């Protein structure tokens, strides 16, 4: 199908457009093959595509009960993950949606059990920031909660017994409405009553860098609160489906705004006259730096990350061609970014080989990510580990800038398997024909950076130490969804 | 010709609403083109009408041969899906039913698979015997409505085609005559494994307009390494690139005009050597221009012979074709995972603890490798059983193969269900076809081709040839593959055997193009052309105008075959001569070639005796006058006569029974008083006088010695007679 000016080749834009007209099954297969052919790649486009697809899946789903819906989403998610296991965000988005559905279902059940205070006692303060995405403004019909692999009784028991860890009830949140207003704009979701975990509050104290995670709405719809919740039982004719759909829409909103939210922390972390080292071209990092540059003057050293991303990096620095800045990434035209020098930043571009040499003058290293793993390590563009290692040698702090959607609950046994190997054509050309025959050329696209080389993560929820990420994982994903794609690993 | 299948028609119907939507969304974009051009069509030539993959293609269509355990056509379809093609027409020659079955069961077939990114996928059944036939058929069916991609069913490419398409569009809007854009991969100045070994394509390009202005192909064996460029081109174009470094990946963006051109020229058979060359040559006549899009990155290559099969396999292993690599799991049922070091394996592979599998290796599901075995740089299919202490290097092993302990395999292709015994040694270049069994301890020599299938005879029966124990050992099954086409034509087999030593080890390919049915091979224009190029070496005086030669020979042959009228043939011939500005030498060569060819055909096919054949050929009405006037010239100069004999001799070097035919022709021409005895005399003495006379030339004229002897005697007799009368 033709798309704007780019010709016939399908990409994210074409895919999203085709979603409306295509059969659901065709859309799923379409996304699978786009992922396989890497015509949708990198975290953000994959996440957006997955979220939109799941939205369709839910919308088209013939409503019977939640268990069936979960099964269906798991099935679709499994296929998507198999298509391209290294795009971990696909799994992340699927898990978030699954978790959200579970929450909604649970809530309804609680709602059903109706205002009984007993439920609120089960609640632990930890819970409920879990899904940024879920919604409470609409009531759902009481629906049997039956997750995939347990019968519902077991689940209830399991949930009750586990509630300290990962389950709670919304009533806890309801007890603390005041927190809603106390934080600005880290979250994404519109109308989630703010929930706070005590743990978060405590852990936030010692670190001046860490901002207490919480949820509030940039859209100002945050005032959905007890009163609306109270109405819910009455409004229970509303469909759970609608809630789930708007929950997914919120995830999509989050994906849209995540860079701005991250950037809003920039000025806390970048100070005047600092020297920052970064590499490759990432929109998140670029926005982060641009935001900091609004108030401060500083120097940025950009390593070009040859061979996979150097052209885009050059473009980001020089602001030359927009097109090479990863078209598929740019959904809307207003994402055009000012090149760094225009924003008053002194930019020095170095080759990757010079990283160690310049590291001694660097005050901070800012890295972009492809995916973040639950242990606090990250998958980033090739070269990141070298930078992190050099930084640790010079005791330079390493800051990783990443949306929460990149954070994966998966904990692979071998990190090698997460690293994608690309096309050696970008390293040696056909002009070196004899070399092609006699030399093996590897072109790893990503690097694994172990957690001990990272000092701080800045997400849209604020700044966290790597050791703290597991908490965010727990807040965002349900433990039973972690390995939904390969059941043999599920406990 | 059968019509499209009912299912295909169903696909078209189902696709209609989709197409409408596409058009609707296209409207918003407000393109300049009219609506029906909004979807992109593509034509896949699934059969290239060649036999370069024998013996494997005896059993399997070429586009279904596995490359890195995925059928070739999957790569092509992935490429088309990647390019956003909506409608696909697949043309196949041999094994159409199998290709059709495969496609209908694949995820690509829109009526049965919702996963298909295409609106329609139609398998067109034809009786086409060449690419040209297929395209003329396509033109007649009127399926193509707008710009389309013409690709081969063996294309492997990850090239984004949008840029080239946009450039093509722009050019066509500016000038309706810009009918075609070829996508060529810059291959670099040095050798590259992606370049074809036997034939070097020469593209003459005007880089300012990206226009291809001349095309020629050069053979590795061709001594005459010149390209003949029309001087006018130098005047018209301020800048010209002559490039031999381009890899022709066979992706053409065509307008429907291209099909019309094919239809007009019914003798074009192959897209490059005939069509491209012809259209460029006739630029003055038709005004059509053909453009090039030379790309410097991404991967594009065709698997057109076994050498390229190997090179593309290596590229897949080295991930040049990324993302079309095994671990992308292009097929639904694949589960490859990539491990560092380049080992790609599916679930269920059993590796013994002490075996070494790795370094650019692909292992299919349920394959097991025994203790102490080593597998590097190889592709192994599913369910293979590999014994202990086996060494496999650079080998391409398909499914269900079992290999016994201690066997060594280097650079071989082993097809499905073959059995290799213990302690065998397969030397480089071995091709083991389906179901062949090689018993223990056999040494398969380099370049051996073993098969169990037999080529279909012309009457359609399939005879089972007995197994050859000297090749497969006692108890083995299989015999050497012999290609009838290959040996009916000395030229190509000579070329073939040369190629094996000169360039590549897996070569089978450089046979001249011969079609699936062998009847066409001898008279196809291609054959005559390759023949010509190989003796162009001793033909320094201007064998370059090959088109003239080709056209002239074809014309004359036609006349001879039909016992037609030489007066009209002469008219045509002189017209050709004038339009091509051919020299006398070229004319003589063409005539000589035409006659010798006809006579050798008569001798071989109709089993005539050489003298009778000569009589028949020269007996065609007007032939004697034609040769006298045109070949020798009205003056009947002795020089010209001698030259004509030389031409005959040269051409006959390459034909069966050349010597006999030369003797017969000489006699005949003498009888017809076309050639005089002085000319023969001079020719003979000149030949005798040559110190470094070519072996072939000498052989050919051996049989004529008797005739010359007879001439000499007759002469002396008549002289003595004259003396007597004095």
What is the secondary structure topology, with strand pairs?
The complex is a heterodimer of chains A (491) and B (726).
Chain A: H1 12-21, H2 24-36, H3 43-60, H4 66-83, H5 88-113, H6 117-122, H7 152-162, H8 170-174, H9 198-204, H10 226-232, H11 240-263, H12 266-269, E1 275-279, H13 283-293, E2 299-303, H14 310-318, E3 346-350, H15 355-359, E4 364-368, E5 371-373, E6 378-381, H16 384-393, E7 398-401, E8 407-408, H17 433-438, E9 446-449, E10 456-459, E11 462-464, H18 469-476
Parallel strand pairs in A: 1-2, 1-4, 2-3, 4-7, 5-8, 7-10
Antiparallel strand pairs in A: 5-6, 6-9, 10-11
Helix pairs in contact in A: 1-3, 2-3, 2-4, 3-4, 3-5, 3-11, 4-5, 5-11, 11-13
Chain B: H1 6-29, E1 41-45, E2 66-67, E3 70-71, H2 72-83, E4 87-92, H3 96-105, E5 120-125, H4 131-141, E6 148-152, E7 155-157, H5 162-174, E8 178-186, E9 199-206, E10 211-219, H6 231-236, E11 241-243, E12 246-254, H7 256-264, H8 271-281, H9 283-286, E13 289-295, E14 300-302, H10 306-317, E15 337-339, E16 343-345, E17 350-351, E18 356-357, E19 361-363, E20 368-369, E21 374-376, E22 379-380, E23 385-386, E24 391-393, E25 396-397, E26 402-403, E27 408-410, E28 413-414, E29 419-420, E30 425-426, E31 431-432, E32 437-438, E33 443-444, E34 449-451, H11 469-472, E35 479-480, H12 484-488, H13 490-502, H14 525-535, H15 546-561, H16 566-580, H17 584-605, H18 610-618, H19 623-632, H20 638-653, H21 658-671, H22 677-689, H23 695-702, H24 705-725
Parallel strand pairs in B: 1-4, 1-6, 4-5, 8-13, 16-19, 17-20, 18-21, 19-22, 20-23, 21-24, 22-25, 23-26, 24-27, 25-28, 26-29, 27-30, 28-31, 29-32, 30-33, 31-34
Antiparallel strand pairs in B: 2-3, 6-12, 7-14, 8-12, 9-10, 9-11, 10-13, 15-16, 34-35
Helix pairs in contact in B: 4-7, 15-16, 15-17, 17-18, 17-19, 17-20, 18-21, 20-21, 20-22, 20-23, 21-23, 22-24
